[in-house]
Amino acid sequence: MLLIIFLGIFFYDTTIGRWAGVHLYYFAFFFATVNVFSWQIEKQALIFYLILPIVLFAYTVLANIPDYNNVPTDKNLSNAIYLFNFCMTLVILGINGFIIIKENITAQKKLSLSKLNLQSLIDNTRGYIWSINTNYKLIAFNTSFKDIIHSHYKTECYEGIDVRTFFLFPNNPKELLGIYERALKGESFTEEYFSNNNYFEVQASPLYNTEKKIRGATFHSRIISAKKIGEQNLQQSKINLETLINSIGNSTWSITEDYKIIAASKLYISDMKKIFDIEICAGFDISTLFSLPNYPIEWKEQYNTVLSGKNLFVDYTFEDEFFELNAVPIKNIHNEIAGAVFFSRNITYRKNIEFELNKSRIKAEEAALAKAQFLSNMSHELRTPLNGIIGITNILLSEKYLPAQTNNLEILKHTGDHMLVLINDILDFNKIDAGKVELENNPFNLIETVEKMKSFFSWEASSKGLHLEININKELNRQVKGDVTRLRQVLTNLLSNAIKFTETGSIVFEIQILEKLSDKECLIRFSITDSGIGIEKDKLDHIFESFGQADASIIRKYGGSGLGLTISKKLIQLMNSELNVESSVGIGSKFWFDLVVGCSLENSLLPVEKKLNEIGTLESVHILAVEDNATNMLVVCKMLEKWNAKVSRAKDGSEAVELVEKNNNFHLILMDLQMPVMDGFTATKHIREKNKIVPIIALTATTDEVLTNILTQKGMNDVVQKPFIPEQLFYKIKQVLAV
Ligand code: ADP
Fold first, then answer.
1. Which residue's alpha carbon is at the smallest distance from atom 8 of ligand 1?
2. Please, are residues 286 and 276 in contact by the beta-carbon 8 Å criterion?
3. Beta-strand (E) ranges in 390-460?
4. What is the pTM of this model?
5. CA-CA distance, 491 to 564, in Å (whole number)?
6. Atom of ligand 1 minimally distant from the CA of 559
7. Which terminal Cβ of the chain has fewer Cβ within 10 Å, N or C?
8. 562 C-alpha to center of ligand 1: Å?
9. Which residue did the predictor score with more confidence, 249 or 657?
């Protein structure tokens, strides 16, 4: 630009020079404008483009003024143009200079701003960032780096410090020096190091200048202790798992979801070697065995089942041995199946024992069944003659005798009843043991029940020179609800024991109302106190155990089965109460229990069960009695005739069927069940084919409740157990005839 101005001055005095100068100035003007434009300061460039036509206009005007300052027009004009152009060039140069300076300032500002941004960026980046030049001098770093250097080495960190000075401190990780050297050699890498009780991970990379020459290196380091410890824990867990798996005596192994072995116990490894001749190790692909000819198909299925997410607990056999397999899927933290763990145990020994036990159990069950069957048969056999004794006694009792004779007959009857109780005890014990006893809940008169027992026990007591005192609350001469048979059974047992184990003194039997719980319920205490031999304190629990007696000498002296109290205790428990005992050796014993009984104390007295003589008659009722046992036939017929019934007899089932076929006018059939030629069931079946109406009552000596329950299904209307109570039979007959 200056050269152009110089040339303009040089050629000023020549015409050619002036014109050339003018045109050179134009060129300079144009050049300056383009120069400005090339810096992209568009506004200014635009101004000059606007100025250009104005300048050309001014030139044209001035060139046409004839006398300007008394200088030839041409010279004046060229002077003016020259001056104008000179000024314009200076202005443009000035503007150029201004723009350049302004640009520089802006660039400087931008640079420092971006430096600030960069610093704040690295300051805010997690971890420690620093860079060094090739002389190990620190050239940049973030605040975290500065802080950690300060806190670890208590030294200042500043630009230009040689990072190797940090190695003078004892706890500076020496491996960093190697990391610096590698990065300065141009290597980019990630490396771990340990420093000040922490694990670090550093990313190192070289720094290049514009000529692509290494001018330093940058480092970004982060604490990875948590991750590292996690990895170490994982590794430790793996070792623990392997140790655990190996310590278990079983065959144990775990696999990934793609069938690769994670860990396996020594037993599993040796088993697999034995079976398939393969060496199992971590990473071994189990699925490669699936295609082996001797690989059991169900094993493959087991793998698939567990890897589909199901737990597995199965027994299986392999080469005549029994195994128990327990397998569970392993899930990752995202709850996805990541593998499975298997525990297999050889249970051949246990299975054999189980097998033996099972055999013994079946044998024991068979024996128990045989025992139950035997007891049932025995009871039937015993009941049949007893039926005769009790039955005949009942018939005799229905006659009129002298009071002393009647008393003897009563005793005879109670002895028969007692024997029946004993037989029932054995059966009951069996039934209670099998949980087959169900209590009834029928109304009965308590005083009546006690009175009936009194005559028997008074006789028993007085025969031993004992006094039996019965205290019963008179208010209890009312209707109560419960199972009278079972209650009588318990009281009989307790009274028999009291008399049996007392040599002198008295027995007090008390029934008292403890509490009236409501209008309909009251709590009654039953107690039997004796002045007998008593029981030692440490034997008190033992006497309630099956066959438990206080002393072995007791059996010798007093006899007994040791079942009575066991049955009584269990029956009282079934009545939701407890049988209690208090006893002192040589002084006596007291047994008691409290029962909640349904009793309406406002109720009128329950009509006392009618005595045989007082009950109605069966006048004009024609009954067919089917019974093979002659005594029983005699008992039942005498009883029926006593009630004025007309009786026909059949000694077995087939005779009964014949009689019914011949004479279809029977009002009722009393059918024994176990008979020769044809039993009661078959006879009933045949009779029912022809006659669906005639009532049939089964008379049976069996106490098998299942059997009695199915009687109705076999075509019978009701059942009466032998030995029967005459009143009971009478009412049952009346009942079925009334329907
Ligand atoms: P059993 O009387 O047939 O031996 P129990 O079960 O009725 O069987 O009685 C078990 C044992 O309890 C008796 O053998 C006896 O030792 C003891 N015992 C029961 N009641 C009395 C009592 N009133 N006084 C003394 N000992 C008794």
1. 562
2. no
3. 442-445
4. 0.43
5. 10
6. 4
7. C
8. 7
9. 657
Residue 21: pLDDT over 70: no
- Asked whether 579 lines ligand 1 (CB < 6 A), one says no
Name the amino acid, one letter, at 23. Answer: H
What's the CA gap between 621 and 738, in Å, rounded? 12
Encode 378-444 in three state secondary structure: HHHHHHHHHHHHHHHHHHHHCCCCCHHHHHHHHHHHHHHHHHHHHHHHHHHHHHHHCCCCCCCCEEE
Edge-to-edge strand ranges of the sheet holding 198-208: 138-141, 128-133, 214-223, 198-208, 189-195
Say if residue 469's pLDDT is above 90.
yes
Highest mean pLDDT among 195-204, 454-463, 706-715: 195-204
**Mean pLDDT value across residues 681-690:** 90
Q: Evaluate whether 340 touches 254 at the Cβ level (below 8 Å).
A: yes
CA–CA distance, 549 with 537 (Å, rounded to integer): 13
Spatial separation of the C-alpha atoms in residues 55 and 91, rounded to whole Å: 14
Say what the pLDDT of residue 404 is.
78
Using the mean position of ligand 1's atoms as its centre, give its distance from the Cα of residue 476 in Å: 29
User: Residue 71 has what pLDDT?
Assistant: 47
Q: Sorting pLDDT into bands at 50, 70 and 90, what band is 130?
A: very high
Give the DSSP letter of residue 653: H
Q: Judge residue 561's burial from the number of C-beta atoms within 10 Å of its C-beta, 0-12 exposed, 13-18 middle, 19 or more buried.
A: middle
Instruction: Return the pLDDT at 47.
Output: 58
Q: Which of 185, 198, 207 is nearest to 226 (CA)?
A: 198
User: Smallest Cα–Cα separation from 31: which of 78, 8, 23?
Assistant: 23
Structure tokens at 124: 């805010």
Is the model more confident about 18 or about 637?
A: 637
Per-residue confidence (pLDDT) for residue 607, from 0 to 100:
46
Return the pLDDT at 114.
Answer: 85
Q: What is the pLDDT of residue 67?
A: 46
Q: In sequence order, what are the residues at sequence separation of 6 or more whose Cβ sits closer than 8 angstroms to the Cβ of residue 103?
A: 39
Q: Alpha-carbon distance 639 to 272, whole Å?
A: 85
Task: Supply angle C-alpha 537, 498, 410, rounded to 5.
Answer: 165
Q: Is the CB of 561 under 6 A from ligand 1?
A: yes
State which ligand 1 atom lies nearest to the alpha carbon of 548. Answer: 10
What is the predicted pLDDT for the residue at 148? 85
Cα 225 to Cα 199: distance, rounded to the nearest angstrom:
5
pLDDT for 417 equals 76
The helix (run of H) or strand (run of E) holding residue 266 is helix 266-276
- What pLDDT does residue 3 have? 62
C-alpha 500 – ligand 1 centre gap (Å): 8
CA distance 271 to 573: 57
**504-544 pLDDT per residue, tens:** 999 999 999 898 888 778 899 999 999 999 999 988 888 88
User: For atom 21 of ligand 1, which residue has the closest CA?
Assistant: 497
Quickly state the pLDDT bin for 572 (edges 50, 70, 90).
very high
Classify residue 360 as exposed, middle or buried by CB count within 10 Å of its CB (0-12, 13-18, 19+): exposed
Q: How many CA within 13 A on the CB side of residue 187?
A: 11
Amino acid making up residue 692: K
Segment holding 670, helix H or strand E: strand 668-672
Helix (H, G, I), strand (E, B) or coil at 735: helix
CB-ligand 1 contact for 425 (6 Å cutoff): no
Atom 19 of ligand 1, residue of closest alpha carbon? 497
User: Percent of the chain having pLDDT more than 70?
Assistant: 80
Q: What angle do CA 207, 208, 209 make, to 5 degrees?
A: 130
Positions of E strands within 227-292 = 251-256, 261-264
* HEC string for 480-521: EEECHHHHHHHHHHHHHHHHHCCCCCEEEEEEEEEEECCCCE
Positive/negative CA dihedral, 615, 617, 623, 625: positive
The two three-digit tokens of residue 327, written as one number: 């397998």
501 lines ligand 1 (CB under 6 A): yes
Alpha carbon distance 326, 311 (integer Å): 8
Task: At 364, list the tokens.
Answer: 């024991």
